Amino acid sequence: MTTAHTAFDQAVERCAQEPIQVPGSIQPQGFMLVLDEQDLCVLQASENAERWLGAAAPELLGRTFAELISDSFDLRAQMQYLPVDEVFPFHIGDVELRQPSPDCSHMRVLVHRHDQVLITEFEPIRTASGPSGHGDYYPLVRAFVGSVLKVSCIVELLQQSVLQIKRITGFGRVKAYRFDAEGNGEVLAEVADPGYPSYLGLCFPASDIPRQARELYRVNRIRVIEDANYIASPLYPHSNPRTGKPLDMSYAALRAVSPVHLQYMRNMGTLASTSLSIVVDGKLWGLISCHHDQPHAVDLPTRTACELLASVLSLQIESREAHTGTQTMLDMRQRIVRMLASMADHDSVSAGLNALPQVLLDFASATGAAIISAERCDLIGVTPPAAQVNALVHWLSQQDAESVFSSDNVRRDIQDLPELAKHVGGVLAVAISQIHSHYLVWFRPEQVRTVNWAGRPEKAISAAGSLNPRHSFERWQEDVGGYCEPWDPLIIEGVAELRIAVLGIVLRKAEELAQLAGELRQSNKELEAFSYSVSHDLRAPLRHIAGYTELLTEVESENFSERGQRFLKHIEEAAHFAGTLVDNLLNFSQMGRSALRMSDVDLNALVETIRNELAPDFAGRTIIWDVEKLPKVIADPAFINLALHNLIANAIKYTRGREPARIEIRAKQHPHETEIYIRDNGVGFDMAYANKLFGVFQRLHRMEDFEGTGIGLASVRRIIERHDGRVWADGEINQGASFHFALPRHSSNT
Amino acid sequence: MLKPILLVEDNPRDLELTLVALERSQLANEVIVLRDGADALDYLLRRNGYAERDDGNPAVLLLDLKLPKVDGLEVLKAVRETPELRSIPTVMLTSSREEPDLLRAYELGVNAYVVKPVEFKEFVTAISDLGIFWAVLNEPPPGSLRLTRRGNN
Question: Which residues are registered as beta bridge partners of A110?
Fold first, then answer.
């Protein structure tokens, strides 16, 4: 916690140090004898025993149970009814006192083993005043169990419980409250007689019940204070002779309570109280607390019935919470399955989640989410602006990588990013891959909520620094801001599950990629072997055809008819074309394999050279060249030259017949890339085939109209893609075409 | 007496076309044709069938890359490793544009490398350039004559 303890915190801590389980005294409505279990002789006695036994405590020491209490009550025989593992006071029978006191003649005997001794407590048997008349609470309990099975929500369950308990005990007001994570108790159900102030909906601050008292409530499920103005009766001697320390009365029914608590009760106008613990999953979930403005006794059968009701209630709450938890978990798992299926379908974590925005939000009951991967940051629903999400991811990357990060108050938990709290209240985040900065983040809005405290939560602190309970329990409103609806631990667990599942997918993908890379290497090798054999074996016969045809034309031309000569010419052209095709294919395959040698490239100089090279192709034609000043790019000069060559040659080729032809070469700078395009007023193309343009052997024109091998644009694409760039084209039939490529811009220092 | 040109080529059609090309380049040198790498080494090292040949190295060695028995690169390697042969200008003739071959040949100290073009005219040009450079210009024999050559018998 914070290092700067306030005086209040210190006072609360001091209060928590009070040894309330060893008060050294008891409440005076009954008396206590501490016995040695072997000889049943008295080791300690409460001073008020004198009232019933007629002898002062010091005189009782060393005497046996039988001689002090009754000959007819055989304690040792009755002890066999005490279960071996019973830790709570167990009613083993009733005794008739040797000398009846004015108010009663019979007393109940409760025994329990603790602190190495046998603790016996005696309480007067009073005439039952409850509705059952004879202490038979079975029908009531049965009715209660029947009724709780019908109610649907926990508040209703609590309401039923307080009603029943008020009926059994006759207390003026019975309320049930639940503790939140901080230990503040909110009153969820209450029944009160006229004249009792109502606390329904109010919050009792955690400091009202100090830590050690909470622990006692957890282990000992009932505590009764019959009269807040009682005068405690001390044990004699002060220490348990077996331990040399004051007797541990954690489980004793008569244990005296803290004077601070008695003051608290008096301040509240309560002179009698009974508290029943609601323990769920071994934790103190809440309390049922019964108050009366006058001293009020609760006899054993009633207490037993209340304990039973509280146990049934605890079990009911436990089963309902477990059920709700299971349902939540089930819903979450279904959503996980849907998201995983979508990721598998889309072959990508980001795309898969993006396809199911609502599922992703519902999964964490969030209003906004962000999917962050190395390349992008996708925002879904209500989120902070992308820049802040990125800042958050950066901040997260410096935290623990493995676990889920959750905060229901980012202002308090992420002080490095104060802007974030202006947009959201809470954040839930998990790293799918930290190396690739891959995160899933959910957001919830801030919810200002109004807490109705039962009095200002600060207890007054006395001059000595001890805690004085507050005097006013009047409703005191506080607005609590900065928080979102708290993240359910089940959701946090679910997010961790999602992470593991996604990691599974990512790993599998990585394996697939590795395998693919292996296969690719293999097929690359085969391709190399293939192109080698093509280059050797196919070129040779083509060369021979071309060579012999030419020789034949030269040597025997006069012996051929005109038609024969035309055939010869066709053979020669075909062989030549086939040779070019093979050469282009080889170039094309080499382009994919040879390493890029990057350097500064002066595009204007390249264009100029290419135009000169191609000059014979457009001799006699009018071409209006419109070449802008082009930027320098960083690329492999030989490859870029080839790409530009192909594009310019195409522009020249496909404007054939245009008078004049226009060829425009321009550049556009974008934030991340440099775009170059070549536009002509040639024959254009149908955009329906735009996707085919850049494929190998894809031709959109007849050979007679425009010659070509169908490899040029495929080469352009391969070259640009090897530079991590992209290519595209626009055109319309007879309206010209423009071919674009964009190269990534590198920072000036690379 | 001009030194001969040694042409090692296994493919009969490439051989014929190369000889036509050499003929058209109007070189005076005699062309000695061998058909595989083993034969070429025998000739160069004056072994076996060539033990009795006139001494002297060829003016230039035109070597096809792919040859039966002993391939072109191996012949080249042997030439470069033999002190008496080391200085023979050697030109690789091949269909291949494959980089590994090219690199290997350069590593072994080839003087030139010609990818036989499909176009016959280009081939003639390439061959005659090579011939003129290595057979004539490189070692201009005093008072040499230009003779019109008929092909290899």
Answer: A91, A121
- How confident is the model over A483-521, as pLDDT tens digits? 888 898 889 999 998 888 888 877 887 788 888 888 888
Paired residues of A378 in beta bridges: A371
pTM (2 decimals)?
Answer: 0.58
First and final CA of chain B: distance in angstroms? Answer: 19
For range A256-277, the mean pLDDT? 91
pLDDT at A3: 42
Nearest CA-CA distance, residue B115 and chain A, Å: 10
The per-residue pLDDT for B1 is 64
- Please write down the HEC assignment for all residues of A294-358: CCCCCCHHHHHHHHHHHHHHHHHHHHHHHHHHHHHHHHHHHHHHHHHHHHHHHCCHHHHHHCCHH
- CA max distance for chain A: 157
A200-238 pLDDT, tens digit per residue, is: 988 888 888 888 888 889 988 899 999 999 999 999 999
For residue B143, is it within any domain?
A: no
Which range marks the domain in which residue B75 is found?
5-137
B123 inside 8 A of chain A by CB: yes
> Strand A42-46 relative to strand A31-35: parallel, antiparallel, unpaired?
antiparallel
Residue B146 lies in a domain: no
The answer to whether the beta carbons of residues A99 and A86 sit under 8 Å apart is: no
Tell me how far the alpha carbon of residue A277 is from its chain's centroid: 31
A550 phi/psi in degrees, rounded to 5? -65, -45
> In this structure, which topology does domain A25-124 adopt according to CATH?
Beta-Lactamase (3.30.450)
Chain B residues closer than 8 Å to A583 by CB = 97, 118
The CATH code that applies to domain A368-444 is: 3.30.450.270
Chain A contact for B95 (CB, 8 A cutoff): yes
CB contact under 8 A, B98 and A539: no
Is the CB of residue A432 less than 8 Å away from at least one CB of chain B? no
Model ipTM?
Answer: 0.74
Strands (E), A5-57: 25-26, 31-35, 42-46
Question: Is B68 in a helix, a strand, or coil?
Answer: coil
On whether residue B11 sits in a domain, the answer given is yes
Q: Domain A595-744 has what CATH class?
A: alpha beta
Residue B98: closest C-alpha in chain A: A532
Q: What's B41's domain CATH number?
A: 3.40.50.2300
A51 in B contact zone (CB under 8 Å): no
How many domains does the structure of chain B reveal?
Answer: 1
Residues, chain A? 750
Q: What residues in B contact A537, CB-CB < 8 Å? A: 95
* Residue B145 domain-assigned (yes or no): no
Using CA atoms, how far apart are residues A225 and A228, in angstroms rounded to an integer?
Answer: 7
Per-residue pLDDT reduced to its tens digit, A73-87: 888 888 888 888 888
How far apart CA B46 and CA B54 sit, in angstroms, is 9
Q: Read off the tokens for A327.
A: 């349902």
